[in-house]
Amino acid sequence: MGVLEVVGVASILPFMQLMAEPDAIEKSRWLNAIYEFFHFENPRQMLIYSGIGIIALIGVTNLFTIFTTWLRYKFSWEIAHQLSVRLLRTYIHKPYNFYLDNNSSQVNTYIISEVGNLTGGVIIPIIEIFSRLFMSIVILSMLVFVDPKVAMIMFGGLGGAYLIIYLSQKNYLKRIGVLRIKTNLLRYQSLQELLQGIKTIMVYNKREFFYNRYSQASWEFSNIQPKYNLLLSIPRSVLEFLAFGSILGVTIYLYITAGNIQSAIPRLSLYAVAGYRLLPAMQKIFTALAKLRHNYPVVDKLHNDLRKSHGDYKMTETIKALPFKDRILLNKINFKYETATRPVIKDLTIELKKGETIAFIGSTGSGKTTLVDLIVGLLNPGKGQIIIDDTPLNASNVKEWQEDISYVPQEVFLFDDTVASNITLGIKAEEVNRKQLERATQLADIHTFISEQLPDGFATEIGENGVRLSGGQRQRLGLARALYKAPSVLILDEATSALDSITEKSIIESLQKLPQDLTTIIIAHRLSTVKHANCIYILDEGKVIAKGTYDSLIDSNKSFQTMVNLS
Ligand code: GTP
Ligand code: MG
């Protein structure tokens, strides 16, 4: 594009020479050569044909510009896509505690919005700088070739002015760039929270508070934009003034030195056309530099997140399960959340045998969920080890260990898809094991509901986060999902708390009929849920204060007796 534009600009000189001086062909070696080459009959014919030629050239240049623009955007957005999915790959592989310490909107904002800013504010400007810089340098060289002095003045004037403006804006651009990221994040965050809490917001009539939270963030964000746009456009006005001034100045200069203005017209035209091309090119370079400066904090942030990732993660999900034959040993494990001051789990040692059912009970906040998060490898103990048979759990085998496990967390995660897809977690319809699906839903006591009450049975869409289901139905879908996987370890964290006692009892009884080697860990507040467990551990502030079967605890433990009496 640069080459074409330069040829277009350069062709003005001989054309104007032809026009202004009838004897130009005799005077110029170049014009003479062209005249001879095309066998023109007279200068007039040459003038007309070269005029048509130049028009055609400008046409081609502009067509080519369209093409390169398309190419440029295609290239940039391809990078944007690559970057966006690479970021997601990085985030999705971050340790679980990353999500405890960061607001999830951050990930959302970076992957979608900031990658877009990176494209528009960094990648496209870099390409812009290269193409315009090339063009500017060639046009300038041409001017130097024609008249070094004028070229130096032109370049010195334009370049110097841009440089001064850029240097004076540079720090401010960066500062508002950092602020822009922050306020953009707030916008996303407040909106996401508003939508998640819509039910509470409606009932408590707190629309105004949450509306203002978004409005405030949006206002701060929108405040930055006009400042930024103003900074980008200031130099243009200054430079246009300078350029017109200098063209006039050069005219006067040439008039004085050349004596007659007629012979100066070709050159003046060249300067005018060169200026006409050079000015926007330099303006674009300036804008690109300013955009780069403003958006550099995005590069910093995203680069930082990508750099901290460990290589390029594979997305394959076929992982071989860790062989689990005999026992899980929690050996003196300690755990403290990074943002907390006190440890949640203290020197805990527990052994559970394969095929057993154990239960954790204890007051709220005593560390039960934290403990199972440690067992499933979502969190890593600060001290101590989790040992599967004889294999200590570590970063390299945790995925294989998780293949053995089905975990029904306190809050069942559901997504806007069909019932079947929610249970199988995205297995393609034709690959679903129908028999297993039926069995899992029967065990979780949700089969009748799905097949008789849902309009499309297993193909019914359940809405965002399962809004079209009741709390108990959601929990039973979570259970069905856990059972569909046919795990060797089943972990239920308050997984039946939303069910009525009769439904819960029947589910717990059918779970007991499952294959003998299924190891089950149950957390429950309702004691009837854990009655049949081989061993019940009572947790208090991260320590086991008592353990035993239901009956032995009733006999021996005062606080357990109180719990039973209360329930
Ligand atoms: P219930 O589910 O209410 O019965 O409690 P639990 O026994 O499951 O407690 P859990 O393991 O969830 O929490 C134990 C302690 O860790 C509590 O004091 C929590 O406040 C604290 N805690 C839980 N999650 C986090 C976290 O992500 N960061 C920090 N700093 N503390 C946490
Ligand atoms: Mg809990």
Question: Could you please describe the fold and organization of this structure?
Answer:
This protein has about 575 residues and is an alpha/beta fold. The chain folds into three domains: about 80-310, ABC transporter type 1, transmembrane domain (ABC transporter transmembrane region fold), CATH 1.20.1560; about 320-405 and about 490-565, Rossmann fold; about 410-485, Rossmann fold (3-Layer(aba) Sandwich). It contains 19 helices and ten strands. The strands form two sheets. It has a six-stranded mixed β-sheet, with helices on both faces. It has a four-stranded antiparallel β-sheet with strand order 2-1-4-5, covered by helices on one side. Helix 17 links the parallel strand 7 and strand 8 (about 520-525). Helix 1 (about 1-20) packs parallel to helix 6, helix 6 (about 105-145) packs antiparallel against helix 7 and helix 18 packs across helix 19. The protein is elongated, with a radius of gyration of 37 Å. The model has no long low-confidence stretch (mean pLDDT about 85). The site of guanosine-5'-triphosphate has 13 residues, from helix 11. The site of guanosine-5'-triphosphate (GTP) has 13 residues, from helix 11.
